[in-house]
Amino acid sequence: MWKKVAAFLKDFFATLLRPINKTHPMVMKEALDANDAFMLLVFGDLLGIPNPTSYYTLELLPYLADDIERWQQRMAVKGTVLEEKAAQFDF
Amino acid sequence: MSVAVLFDKKYVFFGGKGGTGKTTCAAAFSLKASERGKRILLVSTDPAHSLSDIFDKAIGPKGAQILDNLFALEVDPEIEAKKYIEGIKRQLSSAVSSVVIDALQKQIDAAYMSPGSEEAAIFDKFIEVMEEAEKSFDMVVFDTAPTGHTLRLLSLPKLLDLWINGLVEKREKALKLFQRASGVEKEDPILRILQKRKALFEKAGSVLSDLEKTAFVFVVTPERLSVFETERALKYLESSGIKAAGIVINGVIPQELSGDFIDKRKEVQEKYVNVIYEKFGDKVLAKIKLLDKDVWGLTDLRLIADMLVAG
């Protein structure tokens, strides 16, 4: 009996929690977007946007070097903003 | 008044239009202060240095001792930038693979050659000198580049502060979202570096606007261009939160001289001396007479120094 109740409760909460789990990739996506914006400010000159403070952002390079290539590719293959946003929703 | 009111300051800047006598006044002032027992570091931030010429001694970016209590240094932006870049390259090679380093070489070179890098390098050195000299010297005297360069340099803390705040904000936002998505919290080296930078810029900004510790002296010749440029510079500085402490009028023709040519020049000078008193009367610290010789070396500088102190 208690086992059944426990199993039911487990299922119940798992169901309750599912939407939260589902927001997880969306939050991750938002985090990536925020970080892309940060990268753009720091290394915009790699995409041809002049950056007057590139001398100072250089000291971040050792820590961001591994991300740069992926970021550059992501920026290059990005479609429209609308397409990006639409992909976040499960239509 | 006289420049003696500046002897208890910690940082004194000499600025003004090119050729008005910034280096001469900064050197003479430093000499006088050092002979009064203060330990002085005289720093030239003008990429076209003149300190070596005026003291007739090789000074350079490593600095040199001029007298017991007087040290001088000529900041070389190229060397400073190189040191900075080398440091980053070293850090890079310990952090990422050599393949990535090769790919980033372009990025590093582009930043090194970018238009702002020289002034950024001077600004960094300027902060470093202020930090290091705080304990080992009683006063740091800056012989600055002509007006435009210096105004830009002095307004950098405010500009860079805006920029760095934007970066910190963006990074913090991204980190918060990453944490929410992954549930993992860890220290971010990038945020740490940005905050260290921010602290440095803030420190520079607060020193520059600290009227107790810091003073700006403009060297003006009694001529139209010099007077008007100085007026604009003072306004600009005030808008950046920096107040000028004093004006030194340089190159005044001695009263006792006469002759057609001299009389005419004297008339012009008198007119602009009056304009200077009208515009910045309460700020005038000293009037320096034109000498009949080229000023260099300790003996000549002492003549100027005496006039600076006499007012």
Question: What Rg of chain A do the Cα atoms give?
Answer: 21 Å
Q: What about the largest sheet of chain A?
A: none
- Which chains have the largest interface? A-B, 33 and 42 residues
- Gyration radius over CA of chain B: 23 Å
Fraction of residues in helix of chain B: 55-70%
Order of H and E elements of chain B: EHEHEEHHHEHHEHEHEH
Global mean pLDDT of chain B:
91
Q: How many H/I helices of chain B?
A: 10
Roughly what percent helix of chain A? over 70%
Fold blueprint:
The complex is a heterodimer of chains A (91) and B (311).
Chain A: H1 2-43, H2 54-57, H3 61-77, H4 81-86
Chain B: E1 11-15, H1 22-35, E2 40-44, H2 51-55, E3 64-67, E4 70-74, H3 77-95, H4 98-113, H5 117-136, E5 139-143, H6 147-182, H7 189-208, E6 214-220, H8 224-239, E7 246-252, H9 260-280, E8 284-289, H10 297-310
Parallel strand pairs in B: 1-5, 1-6, 2-4, 2-5, 6-7, 7-8
Antiparallel strand pairs in B: 3-4
Helix pairs in contact in B: 1-10, 3-4, 3-5, 6-7, 6-8
